[in-house]
Design a protein that fits this description.
By secondary structure, this protein is α+β, with helices and mostly antiparallel strands. The protein is 24% helix and 27% strand. Helix 1 packs across helix 2. The N and C termini lie far apart (38 Å).
Length: 112
């Protein structure tokens, strides 16, 4: 049985932090790293765990980020999910966390 371990995304020099499950945070880290390496800032939208709504963060190379994982083992990466999240991050609306797809299923082709 999988037990969700919640990590933190720490945003900007003021240390604003947001709880995000380690498995999701692992995939987001890959997307953020790839987008920022390319010099492609983007908007990131996600629900707040306490039910108080949604947050939107501007993700850019000039804004400090820390990914704090609490689990003892890194989750296995689902390449299909990373691809889906990269596509979301490149969209006009920015990145929202999509449900994790089955890594073995054949997905619909992504069209622009």
């Amino acid at each position: 049985m999988y037990c969700a371990v919640v990590g933190k995304l720490v945003y900007n020099a003021l240390g604003h932090s947001f709880d995000i499950e380690d498995r999701t945070l692992t995939h987001l880290r890959l997307v953020f790293m790839n987008k920022l390496r390319r010099g492609e800032p983007f908007m990131f939208h996600f629900p707040v765990g306490d039910g108080s709504g949604t947050r939107s963060l501007w993700i850019a190379p000039s804004i400090p980020l820390v990914f704090h994982f609490y689990g003892s083992r890194a989750p296995q990466v689902n390449r299909r999910w990373v691809d889906d999240l990269m596509h979301e991050a490149s969209s006009p609306n920015g990145l929202t966390i999509t449900p994790e797809p089955d890594p073995e299923s054949v997905g619909e082709p992504i069209t622009a």
